[in-house]
Amino acid sequence: MGGGNGQKAKMARERNLEKQKGAKGSQLESNKKAMTIQCKVCMQTFICTTSEVKCREHAEAKHPKSDVFTCFPHLKN
What we know:
It comes from Liquidambar formosana. This protein has 77 residues and is mainly α.
């Protein structure tokens, strides 16, 4: 007989919990794909949302003898 509302609700909670487990996980893979800006001198990669200021800071700190545009040619635009 069985199959009351309590049992159905419990089953629904368990199903939803399993769905949430599948959706969660590490963002490492998507973060690697977002690393699209690259310093041409040392080949260090930066996430695509990196600002021009951060690129300039990197160039001045790591490559003081090189021009900013040598490190990051995309900033010339």
